[in-house]
């Protein structure tokens, strides 16, 4: 396999964890090689898209053979830094935040929540699901102390931008934003927003459209 230094399209980058997950499934089933059409059928992604995604990383497969499952797993493990754990801070321990603490990712993930912050927590901290939870007054101190560069934001809408500004001030590199607020931040900070209400409305829209098309047919 050959590497590449070219810039990878964002859409391709977002699919990398999916490729890794499905390749793990193939490996667990004892499959040694896989074709783009087999991946396409399993993932419901067009085979041409898969081949185009893989082409950004050089020669990942061989014509007439397909892709070696273990080789691909090793490649994507390295690409996703699966061998290196990433510590994450959770800000906001309401219903959604509590769910994150209880889940705190599984063995197949390379991330773990190591600290959380919530206004109801004391400054000295308390344990929830074996994770220390502190008052937001302690955010800057604890995040710097733990060397954290990624935070999950599950706070009320009114507090979202203020928290983001505080993260910018201490150099946090990324925010996974579960609030509906479109946060503003410098270009060097990565912000991924997951608005659950928008995702739900989008799903409802597609379901209704599918129903209309099936009635027409």
UniProtKB/TrEMBL annotation:
<dbReference type="Pfam" id="PF06971">
    <property type="entry name" value="Put_DNA-bind_N"/>
</dbReference>
<feature type="DNA-binding region" description="H-T-H motif">
    <location>
        <begin position="18"/>
        <end position="57"/>
    </location>
</feature>
<dbReference type="Pfam" id="PF02629">
    <property type="entry name" value="CoA_binding"/>
</dbReference>
<dbReference type="InterPro" id="IPR003781">
    <property type="entry name" value="CoA-bd"/>
</dbReference>
<dbReference type="InterPro" id="IPR036388">
    <property type="entry name" value="WH-like_DNA-bd_sf"/>
</dbReference>
<keyword id="KW-0805">Transcription regulation</keyword>
<keyword id="KW-0963">Cytoplasm</keyword>
<feature type="binding site">
    <location>
        <begin position="92"/>
        <end position="97"/>
    </location>
    <ligand>
        <name>NAD(+)</name>
    </ligand>
</feature>
<keyword id="KW-0678">Repressor</keyword>
<dbReference type="InterPro" id="IPR036291">
    <property type="entry name" value="NAD(P)-bd_dom_sf"/>
</dbReference>
<protein>
    <recommendedName>
        <fullName>Redox-sensing transcriptional repressor Rex</fullName>
    </recommendedName>
</protein>
<dbReference type="InterPro" id="IPR058203">
    <property type="entry name" value="Rex_bacilli-type"/>
</dbReference>
<dbReference type="InterPro" id="IPR036390">
    <property type="entry name" value="WH_DNA-bd_sf"/>
</dbReference>
<dbReference type="InterPro" id="IPR022876">
    <property type="entry name" value="Tscrpt_rep_Rex"/>
</dbReference>
<keyword id="KW-0520">NAD</keyword>
<comment type="similarity">
    <text>Belongs to the transcriptional regulatory Rex family.</text>
</comment>
<keyword id="KW-0238">DNA-binding</keyword>
<dbReference type="InterPro" id="IPR009718">
    <property type="entry name" value="Rex_DNA-bd_C_dom"/>
</dbReference>
<comment type="subunit">
    <text>Homodimer.</text>
</comment>
<keyword id="KW-0804">Transcription</keyword>
<feature type="domain" description="CoA-binding">
    <location>
        <begin position="81"/>
        <end position="182"/>
    </location>
</feature>
<comment type="function">
    <text>Modulates transcription in response to changes in cellular NADH/NAD(+) redox state.</text>
</comment>
């Amino acid at each position: 396999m050959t590497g590449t230094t070219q810039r990878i399209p964002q859409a391709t980058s977002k699919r990398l964890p999916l490729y890794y997950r499905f390749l793990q499934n193939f490996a667990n089933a004892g499959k040694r090689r896989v074709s783009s059409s087999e991946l396409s059928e399993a993932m419901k992604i067009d085979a041409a898209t898969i081949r185009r995604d893989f082409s950004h990383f050089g020669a990942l497969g061989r014509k007439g053979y397909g892709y070696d499952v273990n080789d691909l797993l090793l490649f994507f493990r390295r690409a996703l830094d699966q061998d290196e754990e990433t510590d994450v801070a959770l800000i906001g321990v309401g219903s959604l935040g509590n769910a994150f603490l209880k889940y705190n990712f599984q063995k197949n993930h390379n991330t773990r929540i190591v600290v959380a912050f919530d206004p109801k927590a004391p400054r000295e901290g308390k344990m929830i699901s074996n994770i220390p939870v502190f008052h937001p007054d302690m955010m800057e101190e604890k995040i710097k102390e733990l060397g954290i560069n990624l935070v999950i934001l599950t706070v009320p809408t009114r507090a979202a931008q203020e928290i983001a500004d505080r993260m910018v001030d201490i150099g946090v590199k990324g925010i996974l934003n579960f609030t509906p607020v479109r946060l503003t931040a410098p270009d060097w900070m990565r912000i991924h927003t997951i608005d659950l209400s928008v995702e739900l409305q989008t799903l409802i829209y597609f379901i209704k459209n599918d129903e209309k098309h099936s009635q027409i047919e």
